[in-house]
Amino acid sequence: LREILRAVEAVLKDAGEDDSVVSLATSGSEIDAALDADKVAGVLALEGGDGLGGDTALLRLLYRLGVRMVAFTWDRRNEFADGTGVINPGGLTDAGRAALKEMFAHHVICDVSHLAQPGFWDVIDLAEAPIIASHSNARAVCDHRRNLTDEQIRAIASIGGVIGLNFYGKFVDAEAPSVERMADHLDHIVKLAGIDHVGIGADFLEKPIRDLAKTAYADSPHDPAALDVWIPDCQEVEQLPRFTAVLLERGYSRAEIAKVLGENWLRVFRQVWA
After folding, report:
1. From CA 157, how far away is CA 27, in angstroms rounded?
2. pLDDT score recorded for residue 179
3. If you write DSSP's letter for every residue of the chain in order, what string do you get?
């Protein structure tokens, strides 16, 4: 919890000192205001509830601090749910179900990336608003446990949600991640769910952050070198136009590409945060 609060405080401090480029948003209208002012709209999100100890009151505290998106877990087990890295995972715990109820009551977006399938289907059964998979691809294109099955993709779309395409190489293609293979994930999701339910959730790690993450991985089962596996010519925001170019080559219209690049996210934000 201390690390969560430190991170929130650091973001709030930076945003308070200079909002000329990035403006923190907690509602659809605040996002619109930031965009109208030609600024980036930043949204506070929590990836993994490990530090909350299963206490839903702390979720309410984070909401008051501006957090508007929450993912139950990052890969492993905690008091709310099991992640995709857990062997023989279970569904949402009682605390997880209570947390989900709090999230819907306070118009916090539920993010199911990293959530194991039993918990995912619990969320679908209990959903009262659109949910998202902020950074997950299609398992039919790349068979990785972090990617979504066709059934999961359809389920997210059926309740108005959005799936964010993840540019991390191991989730794009096991052998040769490329912009073209990334576009294959988009094609597959569009075929299953339509153009209104896919966006960008690139999960890019700029080098300083990547180096910091490697330090954290040193005491975990994860291989720090895995953090360097990206699409060679599309591993930072400035290179995203290369992905857009491939979509144009494949016949997507500019209106469709605009949905993928942000309009679909804005629809969910405005709807849930109304």
Report:
1. 22
2. 98
3. -HHHHHHHHHHHHHHHH--SSEEE-SSHHHHHHHHHTT-EEE-EEEE--GGGTT-HHHHHHHHHTTEEEEES-SSS--SS--BTTSSS-----HHHHHHHHHHHHTTPEEE-TTB-HHHHHHHHHH-SS--EETT--BTTTS--TTSBPHHHHHHHHHTT-EEEEP-BHHHH-SS---HHHHHHHHHHHHHHH-GGGEEE------HHHHHHHHHHHTTSSS-GGGGG-B-TT-SSGGGTHHHHHHHHHTT--HHHHHIIIIIHHHHHHHHHT-
Structure tokens at 189: 């999701």
- What pLDDT sits at residue 219? 58
CATH architecture of 45-272: Alpha-Beta Barrel (3.20)
Q: State residue 212's pLDDT score.
A: 61
- In angstroms, the CA 118 to CA 120 distance is 5
Q: How far apart are CA 190 and CA 174, in angstroms?
A: 22
Low-confidence ranges of the chain (pLDDT < 70): 207-226
pTM above 0.85, yes or no: yes
Domain borders along the chain are: 1-42, 45-272
Report the pLDDT value the prediction gives residue 205, as an integer from 0 to 100.
78
Tokens 């600024």 map to which residue?
Answer: 39
